[in-house]
Design goal:
CATH architecture of the largest domain: 3-Layer(aba) Sandwich
Largest sheet: 8 strands, mixed
Oligomer: single chain
Shape: globular
Radius of gyration: 29 Å
Structural class: alpha/beta
Strand order of the largest sheet: 3-2-1-4-5-6-7-8
Helix content: 25-40%
Number of strands: 23
Length: 656
């Protein structure tokens, strides 16, 4: 609501910024458009009615003395209209500072759009927010400080997001109020998910309060007296206007706002506590997002992995009906992902090995893993018998304890096996244990993604799935030297990967050189989060004469081009830090130590003040106490099916 005295909205300027507001010809949408126009912004009004839109546009221009107000005639409940409108906008605009998804209706009778979708759902959520936001995402991400404001409603407090058929009015008895509440709850959930997937853009949902607008008049008629006292359109719009122009760091990602304040998203418990009645599980939100993607892109007949998984969870997990050749299935399997047991949760180097005992007609099972890189390898011996001979995909497995096989058998299911026996999925009927395994410790990411998609379709809870890393020393059986902190794996040498080059830094702590270099890396991380010029990667080792850092760097140097290997050969026991580039073609290029990093950063980021300041800062011994807690921004590598070229001399730079 409006506050007494000086107010931020009185003095803020939006000159040079570009905003798009849907449903902008009346009510809170028009008030927000008028406010932004008065503040100097270029305002794009998206209106269903050409006549009412033109009248509202002219009124806004006259009141604001700003001619930069553009009308787009578009029904936000129609996929074709939204796509056509956005195509026209994108042809002439290179930035978008804010998208306000405000268009909507509340109908008392079930009404389908010409495209066959329930109107309330289509306008508020499916096309008016999800599709339009998806189309705008690349432009939003390219605009610093951008945000999406979804105008939801307090009506969403009445319900969680239901199953898709109910939300789209394909099932059940239609209620206009519930259809509205479902769509509004969906907007809140969508902003939560988008805030995680696109962190450079601010996503918020908001409730304008019960406001006297033409839409409320049409929906409630004489019944609106029960909503009194109602707000004026500007009183409802004031909080939305603030969300449009507030500094991005003031906005809480994924939050639900009313009058500039973050509000709870659930009040279904006793005394208006959150309760659980209106909360969706992560799997339910996964299913919603998957259906928005298919329906929002014209594939309404498609069954998603989430839908298949939801249907599968209604019964126990079944083994594969396709027979396997038990002898071909034997041998070593590397566990690359899964839902582990308490014994191997967080483990690395997990290996399952099967040996067929033809004489006794059972399978000898050995499971080996390490709790951490420095931990000893553990082995668990089990024995399995085949329960469905001929098909060979359902086993009864018996663990050994203190040298004795227990007189119990647990169901062990081969859920999937590739035709070439290169990968398999193992599970249990209750889906509490899952092992995704391949014949190689480092399969292509596309293979792992395909296997995990199968797990999703068979009903496994993907939020419980862990990725298992494999790093081995020369003997192939024990863990290679590993950092005490490494947020994501390095890229593999010689394997081209998707994405920008990776600027990598390894150091020990405490170290004044390492702490100073990490500050430079942090500045580059912040700069690259918006530019995408580099991904950053960081590894930390304990300090000491016997630190594994020294051996780790020696192994890393073996991956450098021949010229650089020779150059660095005399620097055995390289002091911290060591900095290098991992290039998308799979090759490496050393930068060197702290001084070389600073020189490189000053040249590469000469136009970024924060990086220049960090790289120019003098080295101090107190830098050894500097925090190295900030994460880098590299994500797990996605590999391409190409072979890395041999680096030429001019691709190799000189270290310090």
């Amino acid at each position: 609501m409006l506050k007494r005295g000086p107010d931020f909205l009185d003095s803020v300027s939006a000159t040079g910024k570009v905003f798009m507001i849907t449903g902008a010809n009346s009510g809170v949408g028009m008030e927000v458009a008028l406010f932004l126009a008065k503040k100097g912004a270029t305002v794009h009004m998206v209106c269903r009615s050409a006549k009412r839109g033109a009248e509202a546009r002219q009124s806004i221009i006259e009141q604001s003395s700003n001619s930069q107000v553009v009308l787009h005639v578009c029904d936000c409940g129609l996929e074709a209209d939204v796509r056509s409108m956005w195509s026209a906008f994108a042809q002439t605009n290179t930035r978008l500072d804010g998208l306000v998804c405000n268009a909507g209706v509340l109908l008392n009778e079930l009404t389908l759009t010409p495209e066959g979708v329930e109107t309330t759902f289509a306008c508020h959520l499916l096309f008016g927010t999800y599709l339009l936001g998806s189309l705008a995402m690349s432009l939003l991400e390219a605009t610093a400080g951008s945000r999406v404001v979804a105008v939801s409603s307090g009506g969403m407090y009445n319900t969680k997001f239901p199953e898709w058929g109910v939300a789209t009015a394909e099932k059940g008895t239609y209620s206009g109020n519930l259809a509205y509440a479902y769509a509004k709850r969906g907007q809140v959930l969508l902003c939560e998910r988008w805030s995680l997937a696109h962190p450079s853009v601010r996503f918020v949902s908001t409730h304008p309060g019960w406001t006297a607008t033409p839409a409320v008049d049409a929906a409630y008629g004489d019944q609106k007296k029960y909503l009194e006292p109602m707000r004026t359109p500007w009183e409802g719009a004031e909080g939305i206007a603030w969300l449009c122009v507030a500094l991005p760091e003031e906005l809480v990602q994924g939050a639900f706002y009313l009058d500039r304040k973050v509000e709870p998203k659930h009040i279904a418990g006793p005394f208006f506590t959150e309760g659980s009645f209106t909360k969706n599980t992560p799997l339910e939100v996964d299913a919603m997002m998957a259906k928005l993607e298919t329906w929002g892109n014209g594939r309404r007949g498609e069954t998603t992995a989430e839908e298949q998984g939801a249907a599968a969870r209604k019964s126990a997990l079944k083994e594969s009906s396709a027979p396997i050749d038990i002898e071909r299935f034997m041998g070593r399997w590397y566990v690359v992902a899964g839902i582990p047991t308490p014994l191997d949760r967080g483990a690395i180097n997990s290996i399952e090995e099967y040996t067929w005992n033809a004489a006794k007609q059972h399978i000898d099972v050995s499971f080996r893993m390490q709790a951490s890189p420095s931990a000893a390898q553990k082995e668990y011996i089990q024995r399995a018998t085949i329960s469905n001979a001929g098909t060979n995909t359902r086993w009864s497995i018996t663990p050994r304890l203190a040298g004795v096989f227990l007189p119990v058998g647990f169901a062990y299911l081969v859920v999937d096996c590739d035709a070439d026996y290169s990968s398999t999925i193992i599970g249990t009927p209750d889906r509490s244990i899952l092992y995704v395994m391949t014949r190689t410790p480092h399969p292509d990411e596309a293979v792992v993604e395909r296997l995990l998609d199968t797990c999703k379709r068979t009903g496994h809870d993907m939020s419980k799935v862990e990725r298992i890393t494999h790093e081995y020393a020369a003997d192939g059986t024990t863990a290679a030297v590993q950092p005490q902190r490494m947020d994501v794996p390095r890229t593999l040498p010689g394997k081209p990967f998707d994405g920008p080059p990776r600027l990598c830094l390894a150091t020990m702590s405490p170290s004044h050189n390492g702490g100073n270099a990490k500050r430079v890396l942090d500045a580059i991380t912040a700069a690259s989060s918006s530019s995408g010029k580099y991904a950053t990667w960081f590894a930390l080792f304990p300090r000491g004469a016997s630190s594994p850092y020294y051996q780790w760097v020696e192994e890393l140097k073996a991956e450098l081009p021949d010229e650089q290997r020779e150059q660095y050969a005399s620097r055995r026991g390289w002091s911290a830090p060591f900095v290098w580039l991992e290039l998308p073609d799979g090759t490496r290029r050393a930068i060197g130590g702290r001084d070389a990093l600073c020189a490189w950063a000053l040249a590469e980021f000469a136009d970024v003040p924060a990086v220049v300041a960090a790289a120019s800062a003098p080295l101090r011994y107190t830098d050894a106490l500097a925090s190295v807690a900030k994460p880098a921004n590299a994500t797990p590598p996605r590999y391409l099916d190409k072979v890395a070229p041999t680096p030429s001399q001019d691709e190799v730079t000189t270290a310090e």
